[in-house]
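Thread: quick sanity check before group meeting

JM: Hey all, I'm pulling together slides for Thursday and realized we never actually wrote out the predicted structure for the chain we discussed last week. Dropping the sequence here so it's in one place. If anyone has concerns about the input, flag it before I start.
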Amino acid sequence: MPQDPRRIVLYSHDTMGLGHTRRNLLIARALSEGRTPPAILMIFGASEARSWDLPPGTEGLTLPSVHKGASGHYASRRMAVPFESVIGIRKRAIEAAIDVFDPDLMIVDKVPGGLAGELLPALRLLRRRGRARIVLGLRDVLDDAATVRSEWTREGNYRIVEECYDAVWVYGDPAIVDPVEEYGLGDSIARKLHFTGYPDPRLRLSGPAVAGGTEVTGPISVCLVGGGQDGAPLARAFAGARYPAGNTGVLVTGPQMPDAAHDDLVARFGGRDDLRIVRFDPDADRLISRADHVIAMGGYNTVVEILAHERRALIVPRVVPRTEQLIRAERLAGLGLVDLLSPDLATSDALSDWLLAGTTPRARAHHTLDFGGLARINLLARALLVTPKRRRVRTDAGLRSLGAVG
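JM (edit): ok, ran it. Output follows.
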């Protein structure tokens, strides 16, 4: 009788943009490869997750979505109910799914306790059972050091990681950030930490570049504004810019851009014969792979795709409510891998100047940074799944001290 496959959960809270979802999808695809693929349950907080094909053996649970405003405060994205009600629904759905699925391995993206602590009851359940391995996955840059230390102290994250997590994986290269030093993770967490390197998105690509359902031919200059929630200013600047001779501008506005802002872009610039405006492209990295120039905000996934394809890129980072994108862009620019422009200087004329300046070669990202993330994540996951646990089971009371409720 064949042995049941290992069971893996990947959780992402998904409140602004689609980076957490896309990163977990890439990781799930890597984990699903091999002779005995696991059963994978992906828990999403973004309804757009349905736009991507799930890897073999994978199912998705989509939670009610939450919106993060410019002030950093959260609210229900669609339902006219209090934020606390949405979190209550999400919390119970997560705990019920974990209870029934009973994973061997759980990989949590970025937020140790989940959004507003929604993951803590599930963590308590898994620690009571004492079998599942639990991993925290972190992108390269979280935010400026002072903000991260303040948030992690306020939310009890240091203790949650110490008490509940078996490992911490950093999806990046220490040449960009050392989280132990910058974020004060401490010796007990540092001993659990592994740099995986960047996950190379080129491994999932095949077929032509497509935008808005139509194959893209000829030279292109691409503009990406993440989910689009706060991307309208950069999108307008790009739509009004001048492109190199023979280039078509491709602007992906993002599914979270307000309808009024998207419609305004179409009304003002839709008549240009050298510009294509696309609402959402789940395979935007194919466009990056074909582009002569890329202008983009500085989200993790977009930047990793730019670096992996070694495109000439201008990063116009988000600076509120977090400075994560600015910090990443500054450090990459310091290594000669991208160009950087402050968002308050990102006019159509400034973008035109950059686009028309030629294609001066940049430093080779694959010679500078580690892109072995997917293979290393697979090895780390396998090691956790075959290594016997050597930790005492924590009690409910112990985990309630971390702020678990419900």
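AS: nice. The first strand starts at residue 7 and ends at 11. The mean pLDDT is 89.
JM: adding both to the slides.
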